[in-house]
Amino acid sequence: MSRTRRTAEERHEQFVAAAVTAFSHGGYAGTTTDQVARLAGVSQPYVIRLFGTKQELFLTAVNHAGDRIEAKFREAARREPTLASLGQAYDELLAEREVITMLLHGFTASADPAVGEPVRACFGRIYETVRELTGATDDELRDFFAKGMLLTCLGAMRVVGPDPAPRQPWMDRLLNTFGH
């Protein structure tokens, strides 16, 4: 039986998916390139040959998460270019816990200048995309992103999204303010 060879693009996506999984669980400092390699089913030197450094692999994973969010927002805006529509799209993204957790790990690793600048640029692209798609005011954008960041934190804590943690009264009170 012959195996189908993957294209370079398919292999790259496989490595990025493995990196998102590994880094979303262990963060930047707590994840090794060896862990990513094992998840991808390849050797650690092969991952380094493709990405150069752990830092580059991490930034690729952060940008993947940002690109996923941006694509979801663009898809929603094609149906209805409003903050409400984009908010519903983000609610759907909360089910992709690794994506939102990956972005959070990017934020927390941003004290490192080599990580911080690209992570801020990623967030800035998402911010400008929402502005472009909706025409929202600065105050509306602030409120949209503030709510989104709170939902991101709640998603990472398993308050919202798949496989939620056991409910506590504060969770219900807070989520009721969102209509969840």
TrEMBL record:
InterPro entries for the chain: Homeodomain-like_sf, HTH-type_TetR-like_transc_reg, HTH_TetR
Pfam families, A to Z: TetR_N (PF00440)
UniProt GO molecular function: DNA-binding transcription factor activity; transcription cis-regulatory region binding
Descriptive protein name: TetR family transcriptional regulator
Keywords: DNA-binding, Transcription, Transcription regulation
DNA-binding span(s): 32-51
Domain HTH tetR-type, residue spans: 9-69
